[in-house]
Amino acid sequence: MDITLITPAPRNSRRGNRVTADRWARILRELGHRVSVQEEYAGRRCDLMVALHALRSHPSMRRFREAHPDLPLVLALTGTDLYGDIHSHPDARESLEMAGRIVVLNSLGGEELPARLRPKVRVIYQSASPPARPPRPSADAIEVCVLGHLRPVKDPFRAARAARLLGPSSRIRVLHLGAALSPEMEAEAREEAASNPRYQWLGEVPRPEALRILARSRLHVMRATPPSTGSCGNAASA
Asked: Does domain 142-221 correspond to CATH entry 3.30.420.10?
């Protein structure tokens, strides 16, 4: 099968959408398919299109659907889609309508969609291969890993601020991996690292190094996005 995979993140980017697109492309190629990863759909003939991000890939989805109304179109929803754009932006909602299948990465993701669209939903759990030789945890600290680029929607300093509340005997050390996506985020990260002895901002690091730090950490902290208010799923079932 000839597959076009659309991602809004540019080549060589370490942002999540590009990492996901490149990983999915590699898996699909290993299964015997031909895959072209593109930022925008430019009319390339294919058997199937997979688009990441309902809002930012909307123009590509529309062009594909208009040119090939009978070909399969799969939409993979990101976190900002599920808990933001599909509830507030008409283009993101139109992407839901155009897709023949909608991929979410957790079992509750489908609940954010209107009830009539949930039969389209398929859950694909993310996976990772464990290191052949897991590194030993630090002997002088309990390392807590935070993986994610610094942007307001991710609430990136929550773990650092929580660490400030710990008692003097605590051995917690927060290691934050991810690029600052604005000067303001970079300034806040540097200020937090300078004033909080339990927090280290390591910036953007290569994937092998990030996996090594994750493997040796005792804990991985992820932001849990609260359920959206007035979601299109609730509105549709009301």
From this structure: no
Q: What is the pLDDT of residues 71-113, one digit of tens each?
A: 999 999 987 788 788 988 999 999 999 999 999 988 888 999 9
In the chain, where does the domain assigned CATH 3.40.50.2000 lie?
2-123, 142-221
At a CB cut-off of 8 Å and minimum separation 6, what does 36 contact?
2, 3, 4, 5, 44, 46
Q: Could you tell me which residue, 9 or 97, shows the higher pLDDT? A: 97
Three-state DSSP at 202 gives strand
- 184-235 pLDDT, tens digit per residue, is 999 999 999 999 999 999 998 888 898 899 999 999 998 655 444 444 443 3
**What is the homologous superfamily of the domain 2-123 according to CATH?**
Glycogen Phosphorylase B; (3.40.50.2000)
Helix/strand/coil (H/E/C) assignment for every residue in 146-198: EECCECHHHCCCHHHHHHCCCCCCCCEEEEEECCECCHHHHHHHHHHHHHCCC
Query: ∠22-24-179 over CA atoms, to 5°?
Result: 45
